[in-house]
Structure formats: C-alpha cells, structure tokens
Amino acid sequence: MIWYAALVLAVAAERLAELAVALRNTRWARARGGTESGRGHYPAMVALHTGLLAGCLVETGLAHRPFVPVVGWTMTAVVVAAQALRWWCIRTLGHRWNTRVVVVPGLPLVTGGPYRLLRHPNYVAVAAEGLALPLVHGAWVTAVVFTVLNGALMAVRVRCEDAALAAASGGGAAA
Question: Closest Cα partner for 128 from 76, 54, 87?
Fold first, then answer.
C-alpha cells in the first residue's frame, strides 16, 4: 500500500505542476486578450479531481483492497500512458494549454500532435487516468464514481470549450 500511496501522491504532484503551468498560461492568454468561459463548472472539476485522489487512498485503506498484479500493473501502465498523453497535449498547445477554458481570439486551432488524431485528447487522458488510477489497487468504487461524474462534467466542459473556440475564431467550427 505504501508504493500505491506514493503513486497517488506523485499524480497529485503532477496535478500541482499542471496548475503552475495553467497559471502561467492564463497570464499569457489574458495579456493577449484571452477570456475565460465556463467558470461555473471549474470548482466542480477541481473537487472531482481532488476527490479522485482522496478516494483512491481512502477506499484502498478502509476496504483493505488487495493488489491484484495482472490488473494493478496493467492499470499502472495506463496511468503512465495517460500522463504521457496529457504532457503531449500540454507541449503541443504550449501557452494555450490550460485547466480553465481561456481562449485568445484570432489564434488558429491547433491541429498538430495528438490533436491531429483526437478532438479532445487531454480529456481522453483524464478519463483513462480516472479509471486506471483507482484500479491499480482495487478501488473500483472510486473508479466507477469518478468515471460517471467525469462523464457528466466532460459533457458540460466540451460544450463550453467548443463554444468558446467557435466564438474566438469568428463562429467557425471548433475542434
């Protein structure tokens, strides 16, 4: 269980690094006329992601979930792959990547990197990580609850993001 706690804490540290990048990118975007959309759902997103990390530790601790090697190691690989995809997204979007929906008017849509393959690759990474991280150590309740709530939140988030991108590009289709 100690190594699992270390994994969850490493993911938490990665999230803090993301927030630092997002804060820097928000300043960059606002200096260029960027505006934020979807402020209403952002606190729910923060709470859900914090709950994921806490749920992983609480469920495995209280329910004494065992580590099942075939599932645990497979899910660990999925967690690592999700991190790689997320940082590929961050690298591809550069200053435009954010945890918030902040769009600078007039910038073209990014179509390189993972965005040439998927419309919203960062959200694929979030979904994969949210399912896999709890399952590394058998926290299946946390995996199910996060996945259901994240699906509902992503429906709101993707609509918000697509609308903001369309408005910033003059009404064209968002990608």
Answer: 76
Structure tokens at 40: 């209403």
Sign of the alpha-carbon torsion through 125, 127, 133, 137: negative
pLDDT by residue for the chain (175 residues), tens digit each?
Answer: 899 999 999 999 999 999 999 999 999 999 999 999 999 999 999 999 999 999 999 999 999 988 999 999 999 999 999 999 999 999 999 999 999 999 999 899 899 999 999 999 999 999 999 999 999 999 999 999 999 999 999 999 999 999 998 888 765 444 3
Q: Residue 23's Cα: distance from chain center in Å?
A: 15
Say how many C-beta atoms besides its own lie within 10 A of residue 24's C-beta: 12
Which class for 91: exposed (0-12), middle (13-18), buried (19 or more C-beta within 10 A)?
exposed
Count CB neighbours of 75 within 10 A: 22
Q: What is the DSSP code (8-state) at residue 35?
A: E
Strands (E), the chain: 35-37, 101-103
CA atoms of 10 and 88, how far apart (whole Å): 18
Proportion of the chain in helix, strand, coil states, percent, rounded to 5: 75, 5, 20
